[in-house]
Each structure stands twice: as structure tokens, then as C-alpha cells.
Amino acid sequence: MITNGCSLSQREEKSVILTFDDGPSKYLEDFLDVLASEQIEAMFFFQTRLLHHKRPWNRLLEEGHVIGAHTHRHPNLSTLQAIDQRREIETSKHQIEKITGQTVKYFRPPFGQFNEETLNVLSDLQLEMVMWDVASFDWLFKGEALRIIDMVKKRVRNGSIVLLHELEQTLRILPLLIKELKEEGYSFKVL
Q1: pLDDT at 27
Q2: Is the per-residue pLDDT at 7 higher than 90?
Q3: Which one of 62, 89, 91, 166 is at 20 to 30 Å from 82 when CA atoms are compared?
Q4: Confidence of residue 12 (pLDDT cuts 50, 70, 90)
Q5: Cβ contacts of 9 within 8 Å, gap of 6 or more
Q6: Residue 92: CB partners within 8 Å, gap ≥ 6?
């Protein structure tokens, strides 16, 4: 399980991994525009019930971003029987692979909730779980988007994995968040 980027290896430079959950949303193209203009890569964890051929997943991959699975319907896995967890995770993995032609390596459980059965399914499917150590709470700050930046800046450190979502308020502050993290000396990586 990866909880922050430093668990893979210690890095010489200060770096952070931006991750976006709950897409692909109608804002995905706009998120990709911001990331392209800043010349940074990020990780996207998709609910596959939202994934279809019209979403710009091919652009996402072409620009060096990573797509991970986030289940099919976004249930709390810790409340499901093992067979239902397997169905959610396997469906998500296989649909992403079918549409993109890329092998899915990473998985993030909805709400960060999992149990031993989840870990067994991930092992069987050769998926590596990616958690986070910095929650932006962007889902709470619809009317106070600048608070998202404060939540991240207070907790970020070298190797952090930042949890964001494909939400309108996150999109509005993303350029400023990236700018402020760059000013703090951070570069941006993916796994």
C-alpha cells in the first residue's frame, strides 16, 4: 500500500503527487488544460460508471497522467461482502483496461475505506492501493474554494499524496494551488 510518495523511494527534490478522485467528470478537459499549462502530471482515480468513450481519457494518458481504478459505483467497500467487493473492483479495472487499452496498476478505495477482503482482492488482481496523506476537503468548500489551498498547504510535505476531486471549486483554485506549491519548492510526480 502506498500512503505517500516517499514509501517508494526517498527523493532528492521536494515533490508531491496530485490525485483526483471521482471522475471522469464534465470538468476533466478543463483539469487537463490547467495541468498542461503548468506542465505537470497527476493521477486520476475513475469511477467506471462515469467512464465512456467521449471522455478525454486518451488525452489524459498522452499527457503522462495515470488512470487508477476507484470502483464502478463508489460504494464503501468495508460494508460489502468479499464477492461484492471483487465485482466492484474487477469491473472498474477491466472497464478501464477495455476502453483505454492500458493495464491498470493502481486502486484507491472510495472514502478510504477497506478491509482484509479488499486487500485480498487487490492482491489477486495485482493492484496496488494508493491512499493519501493530505486531504484537501475540497468536497466541503464549495463556497469557500480558497480554503482548499489552506488545507493542502498546512499538511503537505515532501512525498505527500494530495487527495483532490474533479469538482468545480477544485478546478477554480487549481492554478493557484499549483503556483503556491511551486513557490514552496515542490515539483509534481506520478507513481
Answers
A1: 95
A2: no
A3: 166
A4: low
A5: none
A6: 46, 47, 48, 69, 70, 71, 72, 104, 107
Residue by residue, DSSP assigns the chain as -BSSGGGT---SS-EEEEEEEEE--TTHHHHHHHHHHHT---EEEE-GGG--TTS-HHHHHHTT-EEEE--SS---GGGS-HHHHHHHHHHHHHHHHHHH-S---EE--GGG---HHHHHHHHHTT-EEB--SEE--TTT-SS-THHHHHHHHHH--TTEEEEEES-HHHHHHHHHHHHHHHHTT-EE---
The closest of 108, 116, 115 to 133, measured between CA atoms, is: 108
Cell of 38: 503548468
| CA gap 79, 85 in Å, rounded | 9
How far apart are the C-alpha atoms of 95 and 89, rounded to whole Å? 10
> Each residue of 171-187: pLDDT tens digit?
999 999 999 999 999 99
Q: Say how many C-beta atoms besides its own lie within 10 A of residue 177's C-beta.
A: 24
pLDDT in tens, 113-122: 999 999 999 9
Which grid cell is 126? 495485482
- Cell numbers at residue 188, please? 509534481
Query: What's the confidence (pLDDT) of residue 8?
Result: 44
Joined together, the cell numbers standing for residue 148 give 482548499
